[in-house]
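Retro notes
What went well: the complex prediction finally ran end to end.
Inputs used:
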Amino acid sequence: MGETQMTGAEALVEIMIEEGVEYVFGLPGGAAIPIYDALLGRNVKLILTRHEQGAVHMADGFARATGKVGVALVTSGPGATNTVTGLFTALMDSIPLVVICGQSPSFVLGLDAFQEADVSGITYPCVKHSYLVKEVADIPRVAREAFYLARSGRPGPVLIDMPKDISGKALLDMGKEEFHLPGYSVPSLGDAKAVAAAAAALKAARRPVLLVGHGAAISGAAREVRELVERMRIPAVSTLLGKGVLPESHELSLGMLGMHGTAYANKAMAACDLVMSVGSRFDDRIVGSYSDFCRGAVKIHVDIDPAELDKVVKVDVGIVGDAKAVLGQLLPLLERGDTEDWVRQVSRWRREYPLRYRKEGKVRAQHVIEELRALAGAGAVFSTDVGQHQMWAAQYVLTENSRNWISSGGAGTMGFGFPAAIGAQLGRPGERVIAIVGDGGFQMTLSELATLRNLGLPLKIVVINNHYLGMVRQWQSMFYDERYSGVDLEGNPDFARLAEAYGIKGYRITRPADVRRVLKAALEHEGPCLVDAEVEKHDNVFPMIPAGAPLEAMLLEPPRHKLEKPTGGT
Amino acid sequence: MDDPSGAARHSLSLFVSNKPGVLIRIALVFSRRGFNIDSLVVSPTQDPRYSRMNIVARGGRDTLEQILKQLNKLVDVIHARDYSYEDVIQKELALVKIDCPSERRAEAFQVMEAFKARTIDLAESTLAVEVTGSSEKLDAFETLLRPFGIRDIVRSGKLLMARGEKTT
């Protein structure tokens, strides 16, 4: 390398290429100029976003849709602080990201220089790990470690804070690929005794349920999950992010469980005598009440993160390991138990308590979503925002492959769905990608319409527009005597015309008769387009288990009497 | 060991990479879960790449389990262990300055002798002493000196080390 000396920034880009990075999402600023400069002419495509939050969500959507590490590049100060929501979103959902922040020169750190922020300090709780680079010679090692940490074990966002003087300095040696992380280990196989105990418990169970979480998707355990379900005849439920690991059209798939899960999934959870979680973390949205969760059932928990075991639900068999590896150990040990009565019971529940909604009157969000899924087909990638439309999408978008379902779970980040869909479409060119968003969340990041327009991607945006922050309105309507506070989105723009202003085709749905025709036209439209679906304003999402209540407290329809305010959760 | 609020006191030892930010990452694990840190000692080890931390903190047992797991999850933490329920070598150092006019010196020396404390500074009206031992012994020493009037007290925080062949 001696004769072709490079800068720290160039070395950073070199490592990106070594890591196979195709896209970098971001927005420059003074402190990031050396790195933006180093990107010119290199085989890494820069996607200029309109806001740093959009950049991180795009990198996140790219990562979710492809399984690769998403990369964002922003500047110091406000550029970096604008990534915090995106980092937190990725951390909560275990998404591999490398976020590079330009930083003020190292000699002014701590002196309140222009656009200088304590980015490490601000982001510690929102990252898997982070670096403040102080020597140019460290750049190759730090960058390689960052990618390795982001994607290995339980994935997560890794932040590199890169002072401008360091990235601009000359670097003589790219170093070797080795790095030293003595405090970091990646579990793979589970403890053999615990796996044997799980096999024995599964054989003995008469009413078992498999709870499939995001960890199963991340580890690529779809084949193993399916084999377990079919060989043992175990009904499976999934978390929001576990959707599609077992195809939701499978006869033993009960869909999503939890607060807005299917009635049959929750009934199965309440009645099971064994629950085996593969890569879920017993989030409060699926457990309801920690102490009442699957009372009396044997609990098995497979997770790659030891900190998840016994965190909120105490289990009988805890197995630390990679979901795919552990299921690989388990499958040869399995002996079929007797679950036929149970499978029949669960099928009965499925027939007796189907998901349903009222079809009369105004356009129903569920109708739009169900029709959209039918027209788009099983291969389409769906990204959602957060709120009522997200829960309806979780219910009505049957997912056959976990990479086709992109949604902010743990963080519940409004504004995520649209930029994430742009990232997903870049990662999955030639495939159908659809963003289902609400009118509230969409307005948090809709400036990325310009990014979409520039890229000319065929992404379809469907705005489920009820002119409300609907999920909050639902709570206020159910638990706060319809005292609506801060939920009316009066002043919404005409989204179709707004899209047109960005050069994106806009459609509107205002009557039930429009739904199929307009969605069909939108899906057939070649470039990007937006559909503004004006839906019934006062629909609520059911089933619903009030926060913190046991699964048995599930409501299938609007209650006739006033409900107590939930005390066990938010 | 337990304080009136019912939160137990835990003695932890951490072996960590000697990198900037490691202390904040560790402190955040405690503060997020409402744990109070009573004492914290950071010191170099035989290998300059690593540091040792001894932390005494108060909080519930279940929360502590989670804290230990979260500490071990940090990339810069090589290992974190709770030694509260193990027989380990535990020492703490205290420097105490008391009001001590000459007529009360004999009385002070008596207390000091019982605790094997040493005089480190003697002035007309004050006396500074140094004492080492378990944290409980230091607490008792402090109680006995209180009637003199404590001007200043500095304690090192608890240090601990595994016994025999075991490494901490």
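What we learned: The mean pLDDT of chain A is 96.
What to try next: split runs per interface for comparison.
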